């Protein structure tokens, strides 16, 4: 039976400590000397383990000041009622939101999408995928499905020109969006998803799936969002009362299941 090198074992142990939130986001990571004394091993071994964590994006070097955990760029609220704009949340956190349109297509609803949006199979939907950034750093990969009849004339140019799709929808189509249901689960990023988020292939990310509705209860958007585990957190808020006739739902899942 092969025995893993000591630095690999140490890397895994340090990674588990980070995942258990034993260190605060943005805080300075213990020095090689401190870790060497703690684990009773050489600084060379410690250095190899830390370097691998840096390559994974779990830790980051900051010049000569040492090694740090990446800063949590923003906290994403999940509400029983309000459909939050990522751009607005990022701005309120003191950062600069950005968005890169990956594709904008007119498709037809399959059985799953039709069920989520309460439309007929084959009804036209707009499929929009965007890479969301904070201060230029990729943080979310988002895929939206919207019934085409609700947004006549919406084009790729509209999405490119407006960092907040929700604000544009509100201004152009006069829709105020609300949350009907939300789910957060763990998803292992594919090779393509990892490339977009600049993380190692197979990294566990936070998958946020939600359905938003208009004020009269019409399903408006089916959203699937993959969120960088080092830069985005989620918090559950209770803002306002639920719409009459709707049953808002917020669910936390450990595995990756469809909404």
What can you tell me about this protein's structure?
- By secondary structure, this protein is α+β, with helices and mostly antiparallel strands.
- The chain contains eight helices and eleven strands.
- The chain has a seven-stranded mixed sheet with strand order 4-5-6-9-8-7-11.
- The two termini are 42 Å apart.
Explain briefly what this protein structure is.
The chain has 259 residues and is an alpha+beta fold. Helix content is 28%, strand content 32%.
Based on the model shown, name its key terms.
259 residues, alpha+beta, 7-stranded mixed β-sheet, two-stranded antiparallel sheet, 11 strands, 28% helix
Write the layout of secondary structure elements.
Layout: H1 6-19, H2 32-39, H3 43-56, E1 60-61, E2 67-68, E3 74-79, H4 86-92, E4 97-108, H5 111-117, E5 124-134, E6 137-147, H6 156-161, H7 165-173, E7 178-188, H8 191-197, E8 204-213, E9 219-227, E10 232-237, E11 249-252
- Main structural class: alpha+beta
Relative helix content? 25-40%
Strand ordering within the main sheet: 4-5-6-9-8-7-11
Strand content: 25-35%
By DSSP (H or I, 4+ residues per run), the number of helices equals 8
Extended strand count: 11
Biggest sheet overview: 7 strands, mixed
**Would you identify the regions where 5 or more consecutive residues have pLDDT less than 50?**
239-248
- The rough form would be described as elongated
Distance between the termini: 42 Å
Q: Return Rg in Å.
A: 21 Å
- State mean pLDDT (0 to 100 scale): 85
Series of H and E elements: HHHEEEHEHEEHHEHEEEE
């Amino acid at each position: 039976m092969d025995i893993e090198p000591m630095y690999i074992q140490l890397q895994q142990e340090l990674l588990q400590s980070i995942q258990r939130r034993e260190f605060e986001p943005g805080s300075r990571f213990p020095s090689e000397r401190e870790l060497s004394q703690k684990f009773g091993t050489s600084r060379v071994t410690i250095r190899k383990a830390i370097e691998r964590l840096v390559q994974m994006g779990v830790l980051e070097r900051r010049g000569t000041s040492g090694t740090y955990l990446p800063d949590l760029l923003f906290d994403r609220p999940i509400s029983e009622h309000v459909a939050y704009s990522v751009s607005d949340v990022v701005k309120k956190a003191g950062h600069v939101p950005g968005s890169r349109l990956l594709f904008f297509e007119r498709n037809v609803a399959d059985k799953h999408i039709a069920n989520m949006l309460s439309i007929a199979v084959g009804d036209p939907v707009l499929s929009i995928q965007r890479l969301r950034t904070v201060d230029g750093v990729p943080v979310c990969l988002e895929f939206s499905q919207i019934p085409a009849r609700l947004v006549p004339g919406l084009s790729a140019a509209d999405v490119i020109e407006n960092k907040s799709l929700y604000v544009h929808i509100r201004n152009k189509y006069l829709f105020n969006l609300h949350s009907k249901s939300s789910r957060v689960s763990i998803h292992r990023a594919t090779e393509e998803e990892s490339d977009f988020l600049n993380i190692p292939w197979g990294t566990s990310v936070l998958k946020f799936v939600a359905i938003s509705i208009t004020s009269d209860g019409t399903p408006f958007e089916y959203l699937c969002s993959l969120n960088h585990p080092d830069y985005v957190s989620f918090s559950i808020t209770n803002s306002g009362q639920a719409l009459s006739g709707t049953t808002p739902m917020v669910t936390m899942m450990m595995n990756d299941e469809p909404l």
